[in-house]
Amino acid sequence: MNYESKIIESAEFLLEQEHKSSLAIIRDRVRFIRLLKSGEAKTQSAAGKTIGLCERQSQRLWRIYQEKGLAGLQKKPAWGYWGKLSSTQIAHLRQFILDDRAETLADIQVYLQNHLGVSYTIGGVSDLCKRLKIKFRKGRPVNVRQQPGAIKDLKKKQKIEK
Length: 162
Fold this sequence. Notes:
Blueprint: H1 3-6, H2 11-20, H3 24-38, H4 44-51, H5 55-74, H6 87-98, H7 105-116, H8 122-131, H9 150-161
Helix pairs in contact: 2-3, 3-4, 3-5, 4-5, 6-7
Pfam family, one: HTH_33
Protein name: Winged helix-turn helix domain-containing protein
Domain Winged helix-turn helix: 104-157
Protein backbone atom coordinates (compact mmCIF):
# COMPACT_ATOMS: atom_id res chain seq x y z
CA MET A 1 0.00 0.00 0.00
CA ASN A 2 1.28 3.46 -0.83
CA TYR A 3 1.08 5.19 2.56
CA GLU A 4 2.80 8.36 1.31
CA SER A 5 -0.25 9.21 -0.80
CA LYS A 6 -2.82 7.99 1.76
CA ILE A 7 -1.43 10.12 4.61
CA ILE A 8 -2.28 13.76 3.89
CA GLU A 9 -0.03 15.40 6.53
CA SER A 10 3.61 16.05 5.74
CA ALA A 11 6.39 14.16 7.53
CA GLU A 12 7.72 17.44 8.99
CA PHE A 13 4.30 18.33 10.40
CA LEU A 14 3.97 14.85 11.91
CA LEU A 15 7.43 15.14 13.49
CA GLU A 16 6.44 18.51 14.94
CA GLN A 17 3.20 17.05 16.35
CA GLU A 18 5.15 14.14 17.77
CA HIS A 19 7.45 16.50 19.69
CA LYS A 20 4.53 18.62 20.92
CA SER A 21 2.53 15.79 22.47
CA SER A 22 3.09 15.27 26.18
CA LEU A 23 1.48 11.85 26.52
CA ALA A 24 3.65 8.94 25.40
CA ILE A 25 0.71 7.02 23.94
CA ILE A 26 -0.22 9.92 21.65
CA ARG A 27 3.42 10.46 20.73
CA ASP A 28 3.69 6.79 19.71
CA ARG A 29 0.52 7.01 17.63
CA VAL A 30 1.80 10.03 15.71
CA ARG A 31 5.20 8.35 15.30
CA PHE A 32 3.42 5.32 13.80
CA ILE A 33 1.83 7.51 11.10
CA ARG A 34 5.10 9.41 10.54
CA LEU A 35 7.04 6.18 10.01
CA LEU A 36 4.54 5.10 7.37
CA LYS A 37 4.53 8.52 5.67
CA SER A 38 8.32 8.87 5.52
CA GLY A 39 8.81 5.34 4.22
CA GLU A 40 10.99 4.28 7.16
CA ALA A 41 8.48 1.48 7.66
CA LYS A 42 6.93 -0.14 4.60
CA THR A 43 4.11 -1.94 6.42
CA GLN A 44 1.81 -1.32 9.37
CA SER A 45 3.36 -4.28 11.13
CA ALA A 46 6.90 -2.88 10.75
CA ALA A 47 5.84 0.56 11.99
CA GLY A 48 4.05 -1.04 14.93
CA LYS A 49 7.06 -3.14 15.90
CA THR A 50 9.24 -0.02 15.87
CA ILE A 51 7.07 1.56 18.58
CA GLY A 52 6.36 -1.70 20.40
CA LEU A 53 2.94 -2.69 19.07
CA CYS A 54 1.72 -6.00 17.72
CA GLU A 55 0.19 -6.33 14.26
CA ARG A 56 -3.43 -6.15 15.44
CA GLN A 57 -2.82 -2.94 17.38
CA SER A 58 -1.12 -1.46 14.32
CA GLN A 59 -4.15 -2.31 12.21
CA ARG A 60 -6.40 -0.65 14.78
CA LEU A 61 -4.31 2.55 14.70
CA TRP A 62 -4.44 2.63 10.90
CA ARG A 63 -8.23 2.14 10.96
CA ILE A 64 -8.61 5.02 13.45
CA TYR A 65 -6.45 7.22 11.22
CA GLN A 66 -8.53 6.37 8.14
CA GLU A 67 -11.83 7.04 9.92
CA LYS A 68 -10.99 10.08 12.07
CA GLY A 69 -7.66 11.37 10.79
CA LEU A 70 -4.79 12.61 12.89
CA ALA A 71 -7.19 14.28 15.34
CA GLY A 72 -8.66 10.86 16.16
CA LEU A 73 -5.22 9.52 17.02
CA GLN A 74 -4.34 12.57 19.12
CA LYS A 75 -7.48 12.32 21.22
CA LYS A 76 -6.71 11.42 24.82
CA PRO A 77 -7.79 7.87 25.62
CA ALA A 78 -10.63 7.51 28.11
CA TRP A 79 -9.02 5.58 30.92
CA GLY A 80 -10.79 3.85 33.73
CA TYR A 81 -14.16 2.29 34.20
CA TRP A 82 -16.39 3.61 36.92
CA GLY A 83 -18.80 0.71 37.02
CA LYS A 84 -22.45 0.28 36.31
CA LEU A 85 -23.78 2.93 38.71
CA SER A 86 -24.15 6.64 38.05
CA SER A 87 -23.23 9.18 40.72
CA THR A 88 -26.87 9.61 41.77
CA GLN A 89 -27.30 5.85 42.10
CA ILE A 90 -24.15 5.72 44.22
CA ALA A 91 -25.62 8.44 46.45
CA HIS A 92 -28.83 6.40 46.84
CA LEU A 93 -26.79 3.31 47.70
CA ARG A 94 -24.76 5.21 50.31
CA GLN A 95 -27.98 6.53 51.87
CA PHE A 96 -29.44 3.02 51.92
CA ILE A 97 -26.38 1.76 53.77
CA LEU A 98 -26.27 4.75 56.16
CA ASP A 99 -29.90 4.10 57.09
CA ASP A 100 -28.72 0.68 58.38
CA ARG A 101 -31.09 -1.18 56.09
CA ALA A 102 -28.26 -3.39 54.78
CA GLU A 103 -26.71 -6.00 57.01
CA THR A 104 -25.12 -8.24 54.39
CA LEU A 105 -23.83 -8.03 50.85
CA ALA A 106 -26.91 -9.99 49.78
CA ASP A 107 -29.12 -7.17 51.10
CA ILE A 108 -27.19 -4.67 49.00
CA GLN A 109 -27.41 -6.97 45.99
CA VAL A 110 -31.21 -7.18 46.33
CA TYR A 111 -31.47 -3.39 46.75
CA LEU A 112 -29.36 -2.78 43.64
CA GLN A 113 -31.47 -5.20 41.61
CA ASN A 114 -34.92 -4.11 42.81
CA HIS A 115 -34.52 -0.35 43.28
CA LEU A 116 -31.75 0.66 40.89
CA GLY A 117 -32.22 -2.04 38.26
CA VAL A 118 -28.55 -3.03 38.21
CA SER A 119 -27.47 -6.63 38.67
CA TYR A 120 -24.28 -7.49 40.54
CA THR A 121 -22.93 -10.77 41.84
CA ILE A 122 -21.99 -11.02 45.51
CA GLY A 123 -18.34 -10.69 44.51
CA GLY A 124 -19.21 -7.65 42.41
CA VAL A 125 -21.03 -6.07 45.35
CA SER A 126 -17.98 -6.73 47.51
CA ASP A 127 -15.70 -5.07 44.94
CA LEU A 128 -18.14 -2.15 44.65
CA CYS A 129 -18.09 -1.63 48.42
CA LYS A 130 -14.29 -1.71 48.45
CA ARG A 131 -14.10 0.79 45.59
CA LEU A 132 -16.58 3.13 47.29
CA LYS A 133 -14.78 2.60 50.64
CA ILE A 134 -17.94 1.34 52.33
CA LYS A 135 -17.26 -0.66 55.46
CA PHE A 136 -19.83 -2.48 57.51
CA ARG A 137 -19.83 -1.62 61.17
CA LYS A 138 -19.86 -4.63 63.41
CA GLY A 139 -21.33 -4.33 66.88
CA ARG A 140 -19.33 -5.45 69.84
CA PRO A 141 -20.11 -8.96 71.00
CA VAL A 142 -22.49 -9.18 73.93
CA ASN A 143 -22.07 -11.62 76.77
CA VAL A 144 -24.85 -14.19 76.75
CA ARG A 145 -25.39 -13.77 80.51
CA GLN A 146 -25.82 -10.00 80.26
CA GLN A 147 -29.26 -8.78 81.20
CA PRO A 148 -31.08 -6.47 78.78
CA GLY A 149 -30.81 -2.84 79.88
CA ALA A 150 -27.91 -3.47 82.25
CA ILE A 151 -25.56 -1.26 80.21
CA LYS A 152 -28.00 1.68 80.32
CA ASP A 153 -28.38 1.32 84.09
CA LEU A 154 -24.60 1.21 84.52
CA LYS A 155 -24.14 4.37 82.46
CA LYS A 156 -26.84 6.18 84.45
CA LYS A 157 -25.15 5.25 87.75
CA GLN A 158 -21.78 6.49 86.49
CA LYS A 159 -23.27 9.88 85.56
CA ILE A 160 -24.84 10.26 89.00
CA GLU A 161 -21.58 9.45 90.83
CA LYS A 162 -19.62 12.09 88.91
